[in-house]
Records
---
Amino acid sequence: MSLPRKSTPPRNRALSADELDRFAVELDGVRARTVATLGQRDADYIRAIVKAVRYTGFAGRLLLMAGAIGGAFVPAVLVPAWIAGVLLLALSKILENMELGHNVMHGQYDWMRDPHLDGKTYEWDIAGTGDNWRKTHNFKHHTYTNVRGMDDDIGYGLLRIFPEQRWKPFYLLQPVIAVIFALLFEWGVAIQDLRLGRWLFGKTSNAQMRKLFRPVGRKMARQVLKDYVLFPLLAGPFFLPVLLGNVVANVLRNLWTYTIIFCGHFTADVETFSKDSIKGESRGHWYLRQLRGSSNLTGGKLMDLMSGNLSHQIEHHFYPDVPANRYAAMAVEVREICERYGQLYNTGSLPRQFGQVIWRILRHALPSRPVARKTRLLHSAS
């Protein structure tokens, strides 16, 4: 049975059952060869990231404090020191969330047996809990990538990104909601697993919601206390400039994280899938679904570092437990395999990919009938 023409981008070729099996074997081989070479170089890399997070965070907070206090005596010091402090603190938070926390929580460094880099217990510098992220992201999203009704990351319950989603009048507001969501992204991630809609419509009791919210509320309180009370208070009467600096650093981190994640999942050629399409899914079908539900970013080593190597979202979806600093090298072979099997390897610059995301948000805010898709999108040609 061939892939339905309507749901297949023109550059994707239908694969026979034998081709799908060989496709999976070749991609599994890329992983096996990479894992066999993991060692000291990878351990040194992630420990260097830990140091970078620590030192940039310390320098950022110190400059914010020094700028706020020194600016009272030398006003010309305030603005440049404050800007430098904000940028360094934002850099620290971006590196911690994307290259350290996200990757460590995938278990990419569990082989090191370092308790500080244990994927099952790591807690990151963000309002959401590590445990909730491991459930909504590591399990749900990576298992059911872009499967409608199973992957909560499709629009995060707020946005209509794909034509298969049923339109509601609420979506007319989504251009504004998308901006608010970007600014407050860490808080949206924090409450994602609470599924507040079920509580609002009476499907989750107040007692159940209190139980679900308890660990989330504790984590939120710790983040607010640290960034918006404790560190600003250390500046004494110069509380407000330090508080504002922490707010701006967190917002910059939120905007960057939102942009990278949306570029990796919601560009023009990305597809979604029905629940029926994954019944009896083979390894080859799984790889094909990950490929068609992902998109990469070009930009070189700086983009790789700043995105937590999610500039290689395709490779991340293929190999989520492989250290992400290896994705750039793996991508050369992965792209060659995909192109040899006639499959689109979706990649492009940040402006190009994010422009497609914006187009999706604007276009699908407007009324349209949900696209009717046949359910078995991933069955091969026979």
---
Amino acid sequence: MKNIYDASTTHEIIRRIDQLESDTKPQWGQMNAAQMLAHCSVFQDIASGDETPERSKLGRLVGRFAKPVFYNDKPLPKNMSTVPGMLITEEKSFDTEKDRLKEKTLTFQQKGPEKCTRHPHPFFGRLTPQQWGKGIYKHLDHHLRQFGV
């Protein structure tokens, strides 16, 4: 599994983000391209420790059993549910969100695993920095595939 801490993987992700257009339609799901970019930025904020949402009740019950889906070698399934508070429904500026996500992704990679959050994921619970690195890649890859890039 690719890991966002690897510079070449981060540059691949940024190149794919650059291929997005504001009117690119999703192959599944409800968010438009700008909302998806904003959603991915919120996820980056959680991984970096800038946001520390509480664990969900469902996550506390089953998150540890489902945790490998976050960092194993299989792509995330289409239409996978998202953590409450991470679903973006309001309109967003595509260019602003595109720039924001690229900056957050590059910054996370450059800071490295030592600066990754120690706060638990709101559903999966405690993750190692390497699990976060793989999971961030999988999450970004999932949403970029959602939009065909």
